[in-house]
């Protein structure tokens, strides 16, 4: 069905939502990998698969162009393993909320959807599922798969309608050209016709017309026969937009992006306004980050890296609200924002995963909250100080029960072994950590109490369950954090100003005899490129290639995707260490439940370059033949990680994969700078011993290097 006929049909049938004064149209994108999209594998550049935005990004751009006020909703915000680079568009930041689950079948989605929807109620649902349900080769197997999809879709429709009886459902057709997908499309058309109602319409969106799956053809719309390439994502987006158009007419248009405004703002909302106390001292320990943001101009766009890290509270939408506010207030900054939170992972586990997720990201600002053991909490803060130059904004806990109002707040009366753990953490341990490590403490617990008391609210008014935030709570937590993200020169420079030094070529450091030489004290070196081309320039640190430093190699997350299931983003082994220098390679561990004890695993290990590297058991410390892989017995986490992904019991056999990524460059190669207003950097070394070194780059004055960044972590690495 072409776009004109689709819109005309919707209008003739009267599919339009009620007018609303200010609330945005809430859209959930429900699906599998096509909906989720993906970044580079494990975040490693040059990986074997191509990043895809998913159709959500180009669809969002079409909605921005249309001036539509929309809110993408869903329990997820990330792509598969990592995010593609969702660039800002027309002064706005992408809304990443979605319900796309890589590798999931429609039947599996149907079972989990009620739980996912606990935190949102959509006005419109975009559904694209079914491809993973079609298995087998015989007509009988195909028919059985189609019936499974039909049943799952019926359950999905019922779930949406239970939450919102007037929900509009846009049912996307799988686009594959081969059998049995034409039959699946026919079945879905019949199902939509049978279950559509005037109150809750189901509109078919046919994505198959003009689709070319063969990636070898010049007009292909996929990268691998299945997943869309940019042209495919654009095509899907246009189809969805055409189907959405009838529902947008009476929705209030989005306001225009504002100019620079360094003051945090409370977004227009239906909730009681905040009345914070004097904030004149807030933000003192994060002023380097705020200076970089506030001093960005159209001519010089400072790059600022911000990482949200924690567990399920940090996964919630308040983090997106904070990021959107920063982009609005500082439109000229080149913001790189990621959320690597892992729901269900307390400090005891995050202390292990930080080696792959936190420290390698090298943020300028870490926004952090987690529950769990107090000593492991300090471990993460201390390691961040040892391995990065990040400023830290640490949040204490929000209020969850009425008893929190009368808790003890005198730190002297709150020992670690006392009965009042929450009070100890919030009024003793976290303030002491903030003081010890120069961390900015966002005292949202006090702000929460004041807000609830002022508005005569119970703690549950901001919660969707016993601890997680509802929409009101997400909004208020964002307001608390935003209040600390303020630039005030009167506060003076933060200590981090001394941790990062910039050396301009031609001013602070000069070419001499074909060498650019710098003695420095630090653990990380970056080159800032400039326009121009030249031959690759050899890099030496202390007379050695950077690749000769064992510290400049690191592992990525060790993850699994059991056969017939979806990727488990939670690491099943963490950390993985080594006793001998690493190679840049992929690692594969094939595991199987032990015949005598299904809580134990036997396994074999192989590296892409190392080759077969030994076998072992999960109840015994493992050192591979090459000594490049070491796994301690208490670092296996298979049952818990897979259960968090909804996979129970642990499969009889599964494959675990991870990579060794290089955090160095032996040569500086021009990154091809086309926009001189934005810093384009190349990391020469990340993870050096935090000490004195000598950098030497062999090239000439024509080598396109504008400056060098030297980073010195404030604590010595242990």
Q: In short, what is this structure?
A:
With 718 residues, the chain is of the alpha/beta class. 26% of the residues lie in helices and 22% in strands.
Can you characterise this structure?
It contains 16 helices and 27 strands. The protein is an alpha/beta fold. The strands form five sheets. Strands 12, 13, 14, 15, 25, 26 and 27 form a seven-stranded antiparallel β-sheet that branches. Strands 16, 17, 18, 19, 20, 21 and 24 form a seven-stranded antiparallel β-sheet that branches. Strands 1, 2, 3, 4, 5 and 6 form a six-stranded parallel β-sheet that branches. The longest helix has 25 residues, at 139-163. The relative contact order is 0.10. The model is unreliable at 1-22, 40-49 and 250-260 (pLDDT under 50).
